[in-house]
């Protein structure tokens, strides 16, 4: 699969089953999220910004997704969002994540988002490298911030400030 063989488009509600399946693959790695199960559609839909949801697909198969969640409901933080990006296990390391994050940054700026943040397990070096490549910088390291399967885990806190929104 080359980078030209897939497309990145806005997520449709009908993409949910594939998005959920890819999310479950990420959960199974133990290094993608503190979540241990995927939410139902209503919960996922309510917790993600409507205008910044993307899928990558090849031959009508969703192979990755990216979406933003508000970090707070307070008005002052209306331009700050948390990044989620997941790629199907059999299509990782093929540029899908790069294409999704590139499109997500553009969509976020069109939506008036001035800061993107990501909380990444330090063991997830691929995700850290991906975010660094798109201008994210490490702004913190949170030790034992949460427990996953009885093990206290740390996270690397990264953020990207827009150069066009909120300047």
What attributes characterize this protein structure?
single chain, 167 residues, alpha+beta, 4 helices, 7 strands
Report on this model:
This protein is of the alpha+beta class and 167 residues long. It is globular, with a radius of gyration of 15 Å. The protein has 4 helices and 7 strands; from the N terminus they run E-H-H-E-E-E-H-E-H-E-E. It has helices at 16-29, 41-47, 96-110, 125-133; strands spanning 7-10, 53-58, 61-70, 80-87, 115-120, 137-148, 151-161.
**Number of beta-strand segments:** 7
Sheet-strand content, in percent, reads: 25-35%
What fraction, in percent, of the residue positions are helical?
25-40%
Instruction: Give the overall shape, derived from the CA principal axes.
Output: globular
The residue-averaged pLDDT reads 93
Which regions are unreliable across 5 or more consecutive residues at pLDDT < 50?
none
- What is the terminal separation in angstroms? 38 Å
**Which sequence of SSEs, written as H and E, runs from N to C?**
EHHEEEHEHEE
- Largest sheet properties: 7 strands, mixed
Strand order of the largest sheet: 1-2-3-4-5-7-6
How large is the count of helical segments? Answer: 4
Oligomeric description of these chains: single chain
Class of secondary structure makeup: alpha+beta
Task: Offer a concise description of the structure.
The protein has 167 residues and is an alpha+beta fold. 27% of the residues lie in helices and 34% in strands. 25% of the residues are buried.
